[in-house]
Amino acid sequence: MPSTARIVALDVLDVRFPTSEHLDGSDAMNPEPDYSAAYVRLCTDAGDGHEGHALAFTTGRGNDVQANAIAALAPYVVGRTVTDICDDLGGFARTLVHDPQLRWLGPEKGAMHMATGAVVNAAWDLAAKRAGLPVWRFLGEMSPEELVAQVDFRWLSDALTPEEAVDILRRAEPGRRDRIDLLLAGGYPAYTTSPGWLGYTDEKLARLAREAVTDGFSQIKLKVGASVEDDVRRMTAAREAVGAGVRIAVDANQRWDVQQAIDWMRELAPYDPYWIEEPTSPDDILGHATIRRALRPIKVATGEHVANRVVFKQLLQAGAVDIVQIDSTRVGGINENIAILLLAAKFGVPVCPHAGGVGLCEMVQHLAMFDYVAVSGTMHNRVIEYVDHLHEHFIDPVRIRHGRYVAPTLPGLSAQMHPASLEEYAYPTGPVWASRV
Amino acid sequence: MPSTARIVALDVLDVRFPTSEHLDGSDAMNPEPDYSAAYVRLCTDAGDGHEGHALAFTTGRGNDVQANAIAALAPYVVGRTVTDICDDLGGFARTLVHDPQLRWLGPEKGAMHMATGAVVNAAWDLAAKRAGLPVWRFLGEMSPEELVAQVDFRWLSDALTPEEAVDILRRAEPGRRDRIDLLLAGGYPAYTTSPGWLGYTDEKLARLAREAVTDGFSQIKLKVGASVEDDVRRMTAAREAVGAGVRIAVDANQRWDVQQAIDWMRELAPYDPYWIEEPTSPDDILGHATIRRALRPIKVATGEHVANRVVFKQLLQAGAVDIVQIDSTRVGGINENIAILLLAAKFGVPVCPHAGGVGLCEMVQHLAMFDYVAVSGTMHNRVIEYVDHLHEHFIDPVRIRHGRYVAPTLPGLSAQMHPASLEEYAYPTGPVWASRV
């Protein structure tokens, strides 16, 4: 490839799925989501057929705002050489995150930061495709020093220095090759949220929970938080369905105030919930710490709405969480997620990624597998969320075998959708929406 | 006015001022801002001539993203009756903040939350104009119960309950009328940042600092954080210019890591800085607490980039700040700022609003004066920031007399700009930009 090849286009598509029609994805804060993707595609003139694809996930309304925020980054990308970006993804991410004018819209949070994450992830997809590797292996081939160069340490040094990060990565270096082989042979453990949506009947919940166990999952998750009576009844049904040996996590999707979370969870405690996820505001570090102290040994988990590495840093410093739930499209892309994986390793807290939505399983599996290969070096007490929705729209969909993610082998980030899906679900002009809007 | 009058339009304008050409507003994180407004106008068919005007402030690039986020709220506003909105501004704000799909883009942070704030503030402007009162007096006429109904207590109850909020407001009720008279007679204390921009020469800094003292200001502020040697030199020049009796605050605009903030400020301590503002990430509650403990008696201030009431709650719970700096366009509008004023009152921490930019002085003065009238009941150790830029574009510009804000008397929020300014600085088509872009 000529080194003068350039990014010639950053295309953004508004793609939405009418998931609200079946209450898939319904929870205490998101009663009727239409799972959506603000989809980004980087095109080059390299002539090698490679494009960079990624997306920011939203739940419907506002997907146009998200798409517009991504489009605003085009001047920072179009016209740059492919090697300029792909050979220094850390520098590329920093130019987007620290633009002195755009950062006012955050800083490093909300729609603008998610837009940065989508563009950064598309660049990683392109870089990994050029290298002929799935992203988890592309990352797993980097030296500790190369990985640390991906990370923006601004605001982290009171918890993690570059030197400490190199040490963490060096300690995990010896077993990398074995762990890659283990992943290729046996995959990475998953848990399933598919039985537990709030809009499902008890019967459907129990049936799906039993099926999950049959399918090999050793953990399921229920949405809670709308009615404590309903939650007790649903938790009872779920526990009866799966027996004592299967972990049941519960997820309140931020519904509660601090004391309310404690009181509510005490009602559910007899049914042995494994973790309580998003008990309150994702910004409430001190609140999570209080909840965790009160509810021990029930674990506290959060992260899918945690805006950036600075909030994760404090959740760890304050002893506020037992589980760090990274998300592939909330923060500023893979670079910031590497920082969060390193922070979690430093504090010895397991990372169990959030997924579901559109393409979140596809993307985040790469981060969990990279964590196993090169950061934490272990799968102990680690699981990736799995939801069985919308995978058919992806060229390289996740595959689950015996309750585990099969390690992807195609080059890239697995976020690329079929052209037909992009067309059919385009909002509001695609055929699926033309008849509805 | 017929009670069937409706909101018939929500117009959004992208207005930018080329302030970067003179380095007005330059600081360690914002070297060349073009102060900008994503401007919103609510029009009704009431036939009474009243419109609701407000804006979200940005620093240039990204103002289009902000404007687009505001436009996405039009379906939540257009078609509703004027009384439906103006008679229940608390309910109106909650419908925008808690939309189950839009909230995914935050929740309650970044571009989407600022958009909510702009629209909510425009509704307050409309409501106050209909009542024939400036917003600070419109608020000051409300009963404690009416004020508490404006507040969204979600995620606050571990620090402040509605009952406590009513108590705070009841305690301040007796003196309201006297305090209104005192404000009308003598205004509210200001401090000025105009001398201290990072792009100014030492000579300009010293000259402007002396002028500030002559003009009656008893506090000025310097931008710091780019070079410790420069800061020591500039601080020396400023202290020499103003003497020992004038407070000099310094502002690092988030430039430092935690330990760096402590080390840097120890170099400046001999020159008696009054407060250090934004020493580090606005999300870093624990970091601010560490810095405050290390630097006592230098005060720690932050707030202009604090995303929402939940982060302010924790800054107060953690004893992380001596000064709460509310901003009129960062959070979800006047309703959320009422919550923050109540939290600050509960914890006994003074509120010294952030201002400057475009229209921030005009809007935030109403909140500080309302705080004095009905919440804290005191001006002790409280000052509103003042920057002498861009006021000429406003129909009801702030007026400073002897270093104090003159209490505004025209109805509304004072955010309405002259039609000619909106036209001239429209981006990118207005005459000011057509010759530049």
From TrEMBL, chains A, B:
Which SUPFAM superfamilies does the entry link to?
Answer: Enolase C-terminal domain-like, Enolase N-terminal domain-like
What InterPro entries does the record point to?
Answer: Enolase-like_C_sf, Enolase-like_N, Enolase_C-like, L-fuconate_dehydratase, Mandel_Rmase/mucon_lact_enz_CS, Mandelate_racemase_C, Mandelate_racemase_N_dom, RHMD-like
- Pfam families, alphabetically? MR_MLE_C (PF13378), MR_MLE_N (PF02746)
What is the official name of this protein in its record?
A: L-fuconate dehydratase
Q: Domain Mandelate racemase/muconate lactonizing enzyme C-terminal, which positions? A: 202-298
Spell out the reaction equation it catalyses: L-fuconate = 2-dehydro-3-deoxy-L-fuconate + H2O
The organism that produces this protein has a lineage beginning with: Bacteria, Bacillati, Actinomycetota, Actinomycetes, Micromonosporales
For this UniProt record, the keywords arranged alphabetically read as follows: Lyase, Magnesium, Metal-binding
Q: Which cofactor does it need?
A: Mg(2+)
Q: Which domain of life is it from?
A: Bacteria
Q: Which organism is it from?
A: Paractinoplanes rhizophilus
Recorded hits in PROSITE patterns, A to Z, give: MR_MLE_2
Question: Which EC numbers does the record give?
Answer: 4.2.1.68
